[in-house]
Design a protein that fits this description.
With 161 residues, the protein is of the alpha+beta class. It has helices at 2-20, 28-33, 37-52, 70-81, 100-120, 145-151, and strands at residues 55-57, 87-93, 128-134, 153-159. Helix 3 (37-52) packs across helix 4 and helix 4 (70-81) crosses helix 5 (100-120). Strand 2 (87-93), helix 5 (100-120) and strand 3 (128-134) form a beta-alpha-beta unit.
Length: 161
């Protein structure tokens, strides 16, 4: 019993010491939130998160870019315009419904819609290339809406980074 009590006391002291060792230390969270750099750091994080998104999804039989992707494309446009050596291939895709020819044309319309939004925001035409694969390169192989929704997309593929 005495041995158990000693072990519990030693364990309790170790936990207390570990808890106290963090007092007075600045964490990364404190550094980001404190001072005047907090707002710019948050904006930088949002921009990085937007740049990480390189797939734009579309509704069925539609080539209109959804409003939720406007900030994503704005971040990409800003990045691309700041790096004139970068080239981006815009790959248009469609789901399996419709003829092969129709889906190639739909994929191209989707990629051109993304291209248009990027060029309006200052991206040089020579930095962008449009390609359509239609239904030929699905990312999801199912035959239902959950698979089709993943296949209706434009992928932004960077080179020269």
């Amino acid at each position: 019993m005495r041995r158990l009590t000693e072990l519990l006391l030693i364990g309790g002291m170790a936990v207390s010491m570990a808890a106290c060792s963090g007092i007075g230390k600045k964490t990364d969270e404190t550094k980001i939130e404190g001072g005047t750099g907090g707002a710019s750091m948050a904006a930088g994080d949002e921009s990085q998160a937007a740049l990480a998104k390189r797939v734009i999804y579309f509704d069925f039989d539609n080539s209109t870019v959804k409003s939720e992707y406007q900030p994503v494309l704005a971040a990409h446009a800003e990045y691309i315009t700041g790096h004139p050596d970068i080239r981006v291939v815009l790959e248009g895709h469609a789901d399996e419904r419709g003829s092969r020819e129709y889906n190639i044309a739909l994929g191209e319309r989707r990629a051109k819609a993304v291209q248009q939004l990027l060029t309006v925001q200052g991206v040089a035409q020579k930095q962008l290339q449009v390609i359509s694969f239609g239904e030929e390169r699905p990312v999801a192989l199912g035959h239902d809406e959950s698979a089709w929704s993943l296949n209706r997309r434009v992928e932004l593929l960077y080179s020269g980074e």
